[in-house]
Each structure stands twice: as structure tokens, then as C-alpha cells.
Amino acid sequence: MVQILVQSDLCSVVKEISMDTIWVQLSEKLYELSGVRPEDMRLTIWCSNGLKHEINNETVRRADQCMKDVLEQPAERITVVDTNQNSIAQQLTAGLNAIDGSSDGGASVGTYQLPEDEYVRRQDSVYAWKKQNQLGRFSSQYSDKVKKARDAQVAHATTLCLDERCSVTYANAPERRGWLRYVGKVPEINDIDCWCGVELDEPLGRNDGTFDGHTYFGPVRKNYGAFVKPLSVRTCSSFVPAVDDELCASDSEI
């Protein structure tokens, strides 16, 4: 986990975020803080080596890449820009500017880094507004949806066979194959969700079976390990290692 300052027109807060966080998960976290919807989001990220990265909307919604796949060094600051001029977040910003008399052309002031616990207690934040209006994760529909999704993950996990061959598939990502080595919680991520630890046939993962210093399986070779949600995994002895098509063709010719 690294301490990252998250800034937008409506927030300035320090969050602990893992560089193993998938982009689509990061966009949901930033949505909760900034009120900017993922589909309207453009990010500017400053890393510890001083480099600045412009992250477009397509990358923000990817489910097959994590932050460290794109960023060379840990992130230190993320600025969230709302590209939708008619969004609720933009309307709130305009309303706040009208109240305090500020505008884009006004004099700039120093940035105050608001601690997360203090941000949650504030009554003039996007967080408080969403909570008051029961929007996003505060709505009963959202809670029911999250619970059903978690129950589905756990139910599917019970059908998987540990130490069996497996296939891992995500939307908009190629299939990966390997061995299912772990099923259970990863407290370093949270104490709620169920995860599958997979030893991959190829170095297409993001770890070696450890997460934040805790070993869950292996350890295996670097980038041969991955932690994925159960619904993306199927186990069956027929999931043999993928064979290179060119190699297969050459072997058939003598």
C-alpha cells in the first residue's frame, strides 16, 4: 500500500492504495471520493520519480491491467478531471464556486491535504452528499447488488477444485491457464471478498503467490502468480497448457 493524494474539484484526500489495484477498481474508488463517474474520468498521475502520466478514459476502465503495469514507480498524487460538463459533480462545483465567489480565474491557494477520516466526517463533501441522498454504495439497491455479487463469488468458489488445472478468463482479456493453488480471503485487500490464487503457465500475472509480504501459495516464479475473483476461474483436467500454434505446425512437418 502507498499513500496517494487524490484531488478533484470537490475533494482533496490522502488514501492508501495498492499498486496492484486494477484500473477499473481504482476508478470506482475515485468515483466514491470525487463524484466523477468512471466513464467521464480523465486522470493525471504523478509518480515518486517525478514523472507525470496522463491516463485516458479507456485505460481507466480496463479490467486486465493494474496500476503498476502502466506506472514505472509508485504513485504519489492523482488528479481526477471530469470531462462531462453536464455531470452532477460539475454542477456541484459550479454551485460551490457561486457560494464562495470563486472562479477558475481567481487567485490560486495552497492545497490542504485532508486526512481520510476527517473527509468522511465533513458535511460539505461529495461523500456526505451521496450518503444523504442514498446514492452509489449508500443506496439499498447498491448494497443488495454487492451482496448478491459476493454471494455468487463464494458459491462459485465452492465448485472449484484446489490444485486442479484451471482457466482464467476476463472480459476483454485473453484466456490464461494454470493451477488453482489457493481459495479464500486476502485480508491485505479486505476481510470480505473471496479470492483465487492461481499459478499460471506463463508469466502473465502480477506476483509470485505473495501479496503485501504474505505468502498465500508457492512462492512461484516472478509474475507466474495471480489473485483473481472466483467467477473468472474454472477448474477441469482438460485445461492443459496452451500450445504455440507455430510450434505445433512445425512439429507436424518432417
Quick recap:
With 254 residues, the chain is α+β, with helices and mostly antiparallel strands.
How does this structure look, described?
It comes from Lachancea mirantina. Keywords: Cytoplasm. One of its GO terms (molecular function) is microtubule plus-end binding. The chain is an alpha+beta fold and 254 residues long. It is built from eight helices and twelve strands. It has a five-stranded mixed beta sheet. A five-stranded antiparallel beta sheet has the order 11-8-7-6-12, with no helix packed on it. Strands 9-10 form a two-stranded antiparallel sheet. Strand 3 (41-47) and strand 4 (52-55) form a beta hairpin. The relative contact order is 0.12.
**Helical fraction:** 25-40%
The structural class is alpha+beta
Strand content: 15-25%
Uncertain stretches of 5 or more adjacent residues: 98-111, 245-254
Identify the notable features of this structure and list them briefly.
254 residues; alpha+beta; Ubiquitin-like (UB roll); SH3 type barrels; 2 domains; 5-stranded mixed sheet; 5-stranded antiparallel sheet; 8 helices; 12 strands; 28% helix; globular
Topology diagram in text:
Elements: E1 2-7, E2 12-17, H1 23-34, E3 41-47, E4 52-55, H2 57-60, H3 67-70, E5 75-82, H4 88-100, H5 116-121, H6 126-132, H7 140-157, E6 165-168, E7 176-184, E8 195-200, E9 210-211, E10 214-215, E11 225-228, E12 233-235, H8 245-251
Parallel strand pairs: 1-5
Antiparallel strand pairs: 1-2, 3-4, 3-5, 6-7, 6-12, 7-8, 8-11, 9-10
